[in-house]
Design a protein that fits this description.
By secondary structure, the protein is α+β, with helices and mostly antiparallel strands. Helix content is about 25%, strand content about 25%.
Length: about 425
């Protein structure tokens, strides 16, 4: 779709100004004024009339900022106003990215609103959609807005909100040097009722990186019904966080998002011979980057990192690529070289991770993917942490034709659930 031109946000652009609620101790200034008035008897009536004003000031809501320990973000998905962190905002373009925020309220009728920065969307832009779970209640398909009121919040006590980047149109997501992508969700904080107390939530140290194309992104499925989300939820039951790093149209070499696409291919090799050699182009490769705005996925040691610090490598990397390389006719030799050489790069950047190649459901490049794994194992005989998950040659038949029970090229909810049910035990078995 054509998008009206509008200057894009830069990383250093300040988020929309927010008025932070004063703490209860700072409210004394109003009562000091009241008692000063009381010194003069003739002002007693005026002072009484002012009491509701002071009460109104004290009732202003609090803000839990994004740098609060109460926020826990999915690994490898988010950037901020200071690299991968900062005090003003966090943003992501990845479908399936999530964050949690936890707090305690003394009110029996608590309120909360998610605050977003929407200033970068051009007029009429089809904004990203989000979903959330508040204390077990779900709501989905919510368009990004300056303020998203959290519904079904009730009762005093502890509350946990989990927000997911549900989906977006496949364009203007990557950004460029010094320029944020337009099609992102930028989070400023959570507005809560006065006196609510943030509760620290430390993300799990173990995490999984789930990489893929539009199928992994969940295209064809409804809200959070993709196999990648289901695998991620299963991993959380074992104490893992997870990152879904998926982009429609993308592949080992094929660029992502609507053609010509501005999201780089995964690991770009050119001028190879029979699947070997060739030239690697880091600038046009996505495997070690979060976006096009200079945010690296690597730490200072050159290792993949959950949040940018050292010793935060993933425990699992699962890749589902090959479909678009076949359908869009990427160079076969360079594609094979990309498969093989990316395994070596991933091993160097995540020395202890389990590397899992998920054969595309349509069996695209299945032979070459198995060849790449075999070549890697032959070249690195001590690497025992590389494996393949192959759902078999019957799967393409279930996805053939239109109106099939499991969908087509893009599986429907039933297809994703069926495939996830077969993938999950194998993934957990690898980790065990």
């Amino acid at each position: 779709m054509a998008v009206p031109a509008k200057p894009q946000r830069t990383e250093k652009e300040n988020a929309a100004p927010l008025r932070l609620c004063e703490s209860p101790s700072s409210m004394l200034s109003g009562y000091d004024a009241f008692f000063a008035i009381m010194i003069k008897p003739h002002t007693l009536l005026a002072a009484v009339l002012l009491l509701p004003l002071f009460a109104t000031e004290a009732a202003e809501p609090d803000l839990i900022a994004v740098d609060s320990p109460a926020f826990a973000f999915s690994p490898a998905n988010w950037t901020g106003d200071a690299g991968r962190g900062g005090k003003e905002f966090r943003q992501t373009w990845y479908s399936g990215a999530y964050f949690r925020v936890t707090w305690e309220s003394s009110s029996e009728t608590p309120e909360a609103s998610l605050l977003l920065d929407t200033s970068g969307y051009p007029e009429g832009f089809n904004r990203p959609r989000l979903a959330y779970n508040i204390d077990g209640y779900w709501k989905s398909n919510i368009g990004c807005a300056d303020e998203v009121v959290i519904e079904n919040l009730s009762g005093a006590g502890k509350h946990e909100l989990v927000v997911y980047f549900q989906k977006s149109i496949q364009e203007q997501r990557w950004g460029s040097e010094g320029e944020s992508g337009v099609n992102v969700m930028r989070v400023l904080g959570l507005k809560v009722d006065p006196g609510a107390q943030p509760i620290a939530d430390t993300p799990a140290e173990k995490w999984a990186l789930i990489v893929g194309d539009s199928i992994t992104e969940g295209i064809g499925a409804t809200e959070l019904a993709g196999y990648s989300h289901l695998v991620g939820q299963a991993l959380q039951t074992r104490g893992y966080e997870y990152a879904i790093s998926a982009c429609g149209y993308s592949g080992w070499l094929n660029r992502g998002d609507k053609p010509p696409g501005d999201v780089p291919g995964f690991y770009i090799i050119s001028n190879s011979t029979d699947g070997a050699g060739g030239t690697y182009d880091d600038a046009t490769s996505r495997w070690n980057k979060i976006d096009g705005n200079g945010h690296s996925l690597l730490d200072s040691a050159g290792h993949l990192s959950a949040y940018g610090e050292t010793s935060q490598e993933p425990a699992l990397i699962m890749i589902n690529y090959g479909t678009n390389d076949k359908l869009h006719q990427s160079n076969p030799s360079d594609t094979l070289a990309s498969m093989t050489q990316s395994l070596a790069a991933l091993r160097e950047s995540a020395p202890d991770a389990q590397l899992v190649i998920l054969i595309p459901f349509g069996q695209y490049y299945a032979k070459e993917l198995k060849q790449a794994v075999a070549s890697h194992q032959q070249a690195h005989p001590d690497d025992k942490k590389v494996s393949i998950i192959d759902l078999g040659t019957k799967v393409p038949k279930t996805l053939s034709g239109k109106g099939g029970i499991f969908g087509g090229l893009h599986p429907n909810d039933r297809g994703h659930a069926n495939f996830a049910a077969k993938i999950i035990p194998q993934v957990l078995g690898v980790l065990d």
